[in-house]
Amino acid sequence: MDKDLYNSGKGVVFKEKIPGLRVSEAVRHEEFEMRAKHVHETIELFFLLEGHRFFFLEQETYLLDEGCAMLVNHDLIHRTSPAEGYAPDHHNFILQIDRQVYDGVLKSLFQMDFDTFGSLNNGIARFSEADWQLILSLIDAFKRADRDEDATEKNPYLVMLAATLLATFARVRRQGNEMDYNRITKSRVVNSGIYRKVHEISMYLQNNYAKNLSLDELAGRFYMSKSYLTRIFREVTGFSVVEYTNFIRVRRAQEMLKTTKESITDIAAATGFGNITYFEKVFRVATGQKPSQYRKKLQEEQQ
Questions:
Q1: At residue 148, does pLDDT exceed 70?
Q2: Could you tell me if 69 and 127 are in contact, meaning their C-beta atoms sit under 8 angstroms apart?
Q3: Phi, then psi, of 201 in degrees rounded to 5
Q4: pLDDT digits (tens, 9 = 90+) for 3-22
Q5: Which of 5, 22, 78, 95: disulfide with 45, CB 3.0–4.6 Å?
Q6: 56 burial level (CB within 10 Å; 0-12, 13-18, 19+)
Q7: Could you please report the per-residue DSSP string of 127-141?
């Protein structure tokens, strides 16, 4: 088990792990930074029960406070950090949802698979008082089940509790019209200082990943020194510029391996790697497989 999927050992007051689901609760009274390079194959559901936190997701930084939650689709860059101007004290509750179990659960309950659910509901939600009380009661139920439920009955019960939390999040996240959701989201975006700059840099990298960009060129484009750009980018995202760019390239390569018949060499060139040896090395580090193995596995799953 990757302990970082459970916050970190310090400050954790509750945790549970069953097949398909990992849950943790943490209360902290000091500055806490998530580890760098934070990406995983689970869908994460993050509830902030008390305090304030900055939450970076892909290219945007959001301010979360009590009554907010964030659903992070699998394989997305994200990171929480102390919110400037607020005390570091915070209390969170986090679920990690695995494809292994929840693909079937989501199809059964919502008529959509793991990928579709994560894609449609990725983002922030702000709860009404009534819905927040429901969330808190479900979280309490997790902890009571850990103490009271018989082992043979506990796992299915926890799976359904997590599904209820997902359903409640999805309902709140998507209720009203798109204009209302965009307004709520926009009001939570941290749009100043280094967070705005990192947003601009991240968007540029996402739109220009196929180019052979140097740090000198990037720093010149954004009118800052290389050292300053490197520092603020890692501070906000947890990634270096090269690591972030390569992650975007690998994700695009995965899409091409899945949806096209392009050769590995052509995909390496199209995604900005150029050198196929370097492409295979980075891809294997990111996914645990060579590009050819990744494509072969996809083909076998589709048969």
A1: no
A2: yes
A3: -65, -45
A4: 444 455 578 999 999 999 99
A5: 95
A6: buried
A7: --HHHHHHHHHHHHH
CA proximity to 193, closest of 11, 61, 18, 64: 61
Q: Which of 123, 51, 121 is nearest to 92 (CA)?
A: 51
Q: Average pLDDT in the 275-293 region?
A: 92
Dihedral over alpha carbons 292, 297, 299, 302 (to 10 degrees): -160
Q: Where are the alpha helices (DSSP H) in the chain?
A: 99-110, 114-121, 129-148, 151-174, 178-188, 193-207, 215-221, 226-237, 241-259, 264-270, 276-287, 291-302
The average confidence (pLDDT) of the chain is: 89
Q: What is the mean pLDDT of residues 228-250?
A: 95
Alpha helices in 5-128 (DSSP H): 99-110, 114-121
Contact at 8 Å (CB) between 13 and 45?
no
What is the SS3 assignment for 77?
coil
pLDDT band at 150 (very low <50, low <70, confident <90, very high): low
d(CA 159, CA 156): 5
Give residue 38's Cα distance to chain centre.
8
Pairing of strands 68-72, 43-57: antiparallel
- pLDDT tens, 183-198? 778 889 999 899 999 9
User: What is residue 40's three-state secondary structure?
Assistant: coil
What is the per-residue pLDDT for 186? 83
Distance CA 157, CA 35 (A): 31
Least confident range from 9-23, 25-39, 87-101, 123-137: namely 25-39
Amino acid symbol at 24: S
Name the pTM for this structure. 0.88
Average pLDDT (158-173) is: 94
How far apart are the C-alpha atoms of 45 and 97, rounded to whole Å?
A: 8
Amino acid at 147: R
